[in-house]
Amino acid sequence: MPTVSPASAAGAAVVVAGAAAALTRLRRTRRLLHPAGRSFTADVLIWGAVPPTGVPLLDRPGRYRGTVRLSKGTPTPGAWPDLLGLAVRLHDTGDGPVDLLVSSSGAPPVLRNLPLPRRRFTGTYTTIMPFRAEARRVWLAALADPESPELGRGLAELTAVTGARRPRLVLAAGSAVGPWHPVGQVTLGDRLDERADRALAFDPIGNLPPGLRAVGLLAWLREQTYRGSRRARGASAQSGGSIGVTV
After folding, report:
1. What pLDDT, in 10s, does the model give residues 141-197?
2. Contact 68, 186 (CB under 8 A)
3. Smallest Cα–Cα separation from 152: which of 124, 120, 125?
4. How far does CA 209 lie from the centroid of its chain?
5. Domain coordinates in residue numbering, the chain
6. Residue 38 and residue 50: Cα distance in Å, rounded?
7. Which value, to the nearest 10 degrees, does the dihedral of the CA atoms of residues 170, 175, 181, 185 take?
8. According to CATH, what is the number of the domain 34-215?
9. How far apart are CA 200 and CA 31, in angstroms?
10. 91-108: buried (b, 16+ CB within 10 Å) or exposed (e) per residue?
11. Cα separation of 106 and 62, whole Å?
């Protein structure tokens, strides 16, 4: 974010969060961002990043209870193309809940910063914006596992193919121009009911793992927008924490 006085920054934050809260109320407490989705329990396995990212959670092998939410951004009807979202919450990390949010995009370096609408939930998801880990810029991604069942098109088909089939996604990290390096996998479990889905709330900036920082204007806008949306819904950045969840 450009250098501004603390008073101006605080005032701008109030305006942006307030606008997000007002728009959320127009949805009658539905989410402002990605209002239509499905949430699932999950098992998150971290293999350990090679080369290391500088983020301990990604660099050290571990296994975590998690929650996944797959969603449509607009949302468009049925299986129409949309900006798809994937949110993963890791529990029992020792540092509180960790939220990793990614959106449908392209895998090549030139497309990592570009949100791309699509029909199928199987595909590439990235953080769109880079993070800082030590002195490096890092992008995170969730990639299709070629040995996993397809996730389908549209929310109805997504629900039908999960459950006993246990689809998987590969977690990966990368630089601005290099290849993706797999760091772990997410296995979807049972679907959570609609009440649990409505109660979930993410913080894609405040709930990052230690060693990973969000910087820049886009990160600041995202932080204020999610904050305003949570406030209007009466949710906190920890909502859904007792059952393991997302966005």
Report:
1. 999 999 999 999 999 999 888 877 899 999 999 988 889 999 999 999 999 999 999
2. yes
3. 120
4. 13
5. 34-215
6. 32
7. -20
8. 2.40.180.10
9. 10
10. bebeebbbbbbbbbbbbe
11. 28
- Dist CA 232 CA 241 (whole Å): 19
12 CB burial (10 A radius; 0-12, 13-18, 19+):
middle
Q: Which pLDDT score, from 0 to 100, does residue 12 have? A: 37
For Cα atoms 27, 28, 34, give the angle at the middle one, nearest 5 degrees: 40
Q: What is the pLDDT of residue 236?
A: 52
CA separation for the pair 103, 70 (Å, rounded): 10
pLDDT tens string 42-53: 999 999 999 999
Helices (H), 3-68: 6-26, 56-59
Distance CA 73, CA 70 (A): 10
Query: Of 162, 238, 163, which Cα lies nearest the Cα of 199?
Result: 238
